[in-house]
Amino acid sequence: MDFPAGPADSRDVKALVKTAAGPGLELTEVPDPRPGDNDVLIRVLRTGICGTDLHIESWDDWAAGVVRAPLVLGHEFVGEVVAVGSGVTRAQPGDLVSGEGHLVCGSCRNCMAGRRHLCARTVGLGVHTDGAFAELVALPESNVWVHRQPVDLDVAAIFDPFGNAVHTALSFPVLNEDVLITGAGPIGIMAAAVARHAGARHVVITDVSDYRLELARKVGVSLALDVRTTSIEEAQRTLGMKEGFDVGLEMSGRPEPLRDMIANMTHGGRIAVLGLPTDDIPIDMAKVVTHMLTIKGIYGREMYETWYAMSVLLQGGLDISPVITDRFGFEQHAEAFAAARSGRCGKVVIDWTRPTLPTSQPTGA
Question: Where are the active-site residues found (predicted)?
């Protein structure tokens, strides 16, 4: 972001930076952000590693086509407000905050209608502009979510992907419904927890990773299904289901799970798709038509209804902490990224208040 001149005590801060085109990241010092009148300056406490960050770190074709180095990565974070601009009215120094990573234009048709999550000119924090993998980050006040109730710092650090899970899981009513989730990554597992908390009768999640299926069992799914050995049809019989699933949440971005989901939906079933495929996916369109299925794409979070829902769900007893499996200090960023890339993890959190943590450090400390 291009901020106006900053405070007199401006200094360099540590940040995790894509310094040049190519694989890798560097922990280095960058000038501190220079917030404007409507911005909030935040001391970062914890950050979460997202799949987007992995793409940028490895510098795959997508990253090479979208990202311009140098860039400070990161969009999942929690921090403490240290200063506010003269136009800021809701946040104040000392507030604990998370941030909405989609920076919208505010003037397009959807923004003007209050549908900011549909802004056609969205800019991604940590993708198109410097992000939160740093000691300090500045955000427009309109992108700051103030935590008004106590919240675990690890959980607050992953409000961004938690929001993806909530947006997807609550796109259709799930009370008393049978819900199928394809893809037991961290967002899929959180969506399963939300659906169960919101009153779904059966919640079935599928994957091919024993590790992640076991994580899913910790949040109380009805069945965590390894589709290499058991079909979704068999799962229906096990649960005594007769007509298919009412709601589907596709989280994998893979063709086979979406096709299996369509094949196992009830007539009039509704599917929310968050998983982003890398290639075209052929589907049985005849079944979509004759079974009158609804397929809805999901991107990001509704601003800020989803954020409100997240806070209320946690206040109501929803526990997503099992999805957070690994924590590292900021100097251990290489190990953190390796853990996130391994697949044998849930969410990986980096602590920006401590350079290193013991490898056995429990979450929530």
Answer: 52 (charge relay system), 55 (charge relay system)
Q: Binding site annotation covers 212?
A: yes
Q: What's the rounded Cα separation, in Å, for the pair 129 and 20? A: 15
Task: Give the pLDDT score at 278.
Answer: 85
Q: Residue 43: give its domain's CATH number.
A: 3.90.180.10
pTM over 0.85: yes
Residues 39 and 126 in one domain: yes
Catalytic (active site) residue 206: no
User: Is 298 flagged in the annotation as binding?
Assistant: yes
Confidence label for 343 from pLDDT (cuts 50, 70 and 90):
confident
52 classed as catalytic: yes
User: Do residues 184 and 151 both lie within one domain?
Assistant: no
The response to whether 42 counts as a known ligand-binding position is no
CA distance 243 to 226: 21
